[in-house]
Design a protein that fits this description.
Layout: H1 2-23, H2 41-72, E1 85-88, E2 93-95, E3 104-109, H3 114-129, E4 135-139, H4 144-154, E5 159-162, H5 165-170, E6 178-182, E7 188-193, H6 198-205
Parallel strand pairs: 3-4, 4-5
Antiparallel strand pairs: 1-2, 1-5, 3-6, 6-7
């Protein structure tokens, strides 16, 4: 009897302890943080550099492809650049012969042509950076006033001429934009159909200025 009385409180005390523990569970420590999704700065920097490198390679390949396509689509022109006389926006006559002894870039464009509008800033930047290589924008459409508005809108600081059918046919222009580079001897140096950007202009005119 005595052993039973002594053992009973122990069992009761043990049950009480377990009950208290169940009613008031002890806070468990949080699991260790999974750091596999946390990139150190060095890893992020390497990924960014790799992305920039891939974008640069893609841009170079796109420029090369654009240049090759433009050359393949270029019209078959005679060695000697066809002469012309066209009016500028002030009504003054402009002849190709006026630029004898200097290379000149002829850009055939139209106000409704989206690639023409996209490449205009590149031609303007080229004209400003290379004053010894004049750029002539030969427009296929538009009145002088409409062409002034378009030139202001697109930032064309170079000379704009009003084209005619005879000149377009002489240069084989069937697609806009078409660009023809004439060297200082009056010969066709190169021609390009389609969008032409700064690097293309630099390559097309490299070594022509005296």
């Amino acid at each position: 009897m005595l052993r039973g009385r002594i053992g009973s409180p122990e069992k009761s005390h043990g049950c009480y302890t377990r009950a208290v523990s169940a009613a008031h569970p002890q806070p468990s420590s949080p699991p260790p943080a999974d750091r596999t999704d946390i990139d150190p700065p060095a890893s992020t920097g390497r990924r960014l550099l790799r992305l920039l490198r891939e974008l640069a390679i893609f841009a170079v390949l796109a420029l090369v492809a654009l240049g090759v396509a433009g050359r393949l689509r270029a019209p078959d022109l005679p060695p000697e650049a066809p002469g012309f006389t066209l009016l500028d926006l002030d009504g003054a006559p402009v002849r190709l012969a006026d630029y004898a002894g200097r290379p000149v870039v002829l850009n055939f464009w139209a106000t409704w042509c989206m690639p023409c509008r996209l490449e205009a800033p590149s031609f303007d930047a080229f004209a400003r950076a290379n004053p010894d290589i004049p750029v002539l924008g030969i427009a296929a459409d538009g009145t002088p006033d409409a062409l002034r508005v378009a030139a202001d809108e697109l930032g064309m600081s170079y000379r704009i001429l009003r084209g005619d059918r005879v000149t377009q046919e002489a240069y084989g222009v069937t697609v806009y934009p078409t660009t023809v580079v004439v060297d200082s001897d009056g010969r066709v140096a190169t021609s390009h159909v389609g969008l032409m950007l700064g690097p293309h202009l630099w390559l097309a005119t490299r070594g022509l200025a005296r």
